[in-house]
Specification:
Elements: E1 29-34, E2 39-41, E3 43-46, E4 57-60, E5 67-74, E6 78-87, E7 96-100, E8 103-109, E9 121-129, E10 132-140, E11 148-156, H1 158-161, H2 165-169, E12 197-199, E13 202-212, E14 250-254, E15 272-277, E16 280-290, E17 297-299, H3 300-305, E18 317-326, H4 338-355
């Protein structure tokens, strides 16, 4: 697809309660398992970096097939969220395949650079657990091995699963338009077709997805991979630096204009956005602003997690993406904590389904 042209700088386990629950029916149950207590293959326990929990972390050997295997016990069969706390001090993605009871549930899940080996981040994926004993294995798929892994958090219950994509989409079938006109999906299209719509507790639009690769320079996002790369984002990390498009799922909103001004709707940096594509939900944050006349853009990591080609030069998708932006004072802080975005997003999504 055609990549968007940007104008100048963007204003810039112990018994777990598991089960498929309806929104709001029960609270979440969470268990943390230290990686150093798991079963290791071609990996070692290390302590030579700071910020880890427990007595150490797992350092993968630089070899394809090295793995960490966790033992997880579930009281009953059902959905769960696995969140890996990891560090990757390189600029190269160190993907892993996540398997549950011998079956791959997430192939080549991206573990992008975190800035340093002392900087830890969270990577989450949804799975189904069987009643009783389960094995969760994280296997390196490249010769670089996996990232350093500190722990696995297993979350079940409403806050762990939230509404389904179908439940959210059922609430946005009609549009009460709040934008003064419509947006284009790309610079080179002739017609503006996308409305910004209002529901109780959220605004939404249905559009394409162009790839934003601005911010921290990484292997995926830099001047060579993206013709329009900018080393900054409108929203900043807790440390005052740009966001990492390759590592953090975020959404780009149009800069304020007469068409629509997000600031008038209690939306800002760290606001949670449910991005829905192909029956999948990615909970991202508002992280950047774009051209005043165009809508439908998200970070490299958002696209990658949803199975959309994240290449900033020719990736993205021309249609089929729904963006539900939850209004209100609740924001993700620090903005770079994706696990917090998932937790808050599921809570806000539950309220959205219940109130519409």
């Amino acid at each position: 697809m055609t990549h968007r042209f940007r104008i100048g700088a963007l204003v810039s386990v112990i018994a777990l309660l598991a089960g498929v629950l309806t929104p709001g029916s029960a609270s979440a149950a969470t268990t943390q398992i230290e990686a150093e207590n798991a079963t290791l293959s071609q990996a070692t326990v290390a302590t030579n970096h700071t910020g880890f929990s427990g007595s150490g972390f797992v350092d993968y050997a630089n070899v394809t097939g090295s793995f960490v295997q966790f033992s997880v016990t579930a009281a009953s069969a059902g959905s769960a969220t696995l969140t890996f706390r990891y560090a990757n001090g390189t600029t190269v993605n160190r993907p892993m395949t996540i398997s549950v009871n011998g079956t791959a549930v997430a192939t080549n899940l991206a573990f992008n650079g975190t800035g340093s080996w002392n900087t830890w981040a969270d990577k989450a994926t949804s799975v189904s657990l069987a009643a009783g004993a389960n094995t969760v294995r994280a296997t390196a798929t490249t010769a670089n091995g996996g990232p350093n892994v500190d722990r696995l958090t297993v979350t079940t219950g409403t806050s762990g699963t939230g509404p389904t994509a179908a439940q959210l989409l059922a609430k946005v079938t009609s549009c009460s338009q709040i934008s003064n006109g419509r947006y284009k999906t790309d610079e080179d299209v002739s017609t503006a077709t996308v409305q910004v719509c209002q529901k109780t507790g959220a605004v939404f639009w249905k559009a394409d997805m162009d790839i934003d690769c601005d911010g921290v320079r990484t292997t995926q996002c830099n001047e060579n991979t993206d013709c329009c790369f900018l080393p900054e984002t409108f929203c900043e990390t807790s440390g005052g630096g740009p966001l990492n498009a390759a590592g953090l799922p975020y959404v780009v909103v149009p800069s304020p204009s007469n068409t629509w001004d997000y600031r008038n709707f209690n939306i800002g940096c760290g606001t949670v956005v449910a991005v829905i594509f192909n029956n999948q939900i990615e909970y991202a944050v508002v992280g950047d602003t774009g051209p005043t006349a165009i809508i439908g853009e998200a970070s490299y990591a958002t696209a990658n997690d949803l199975g959309i080609d994240p290449d900033p030069s020719n990736g993205g998708t021309d249609s089929g993406v729904t963006y539900i932006v939850f209004q209100g004072s609740q924001r993700v802080s620090p903005i770079e904590n994706h696990n917090s975005a998932i937790t808050l997003g599921r809570s806000l999504a539950t309220s959205f389904v219940n109130n519409n």
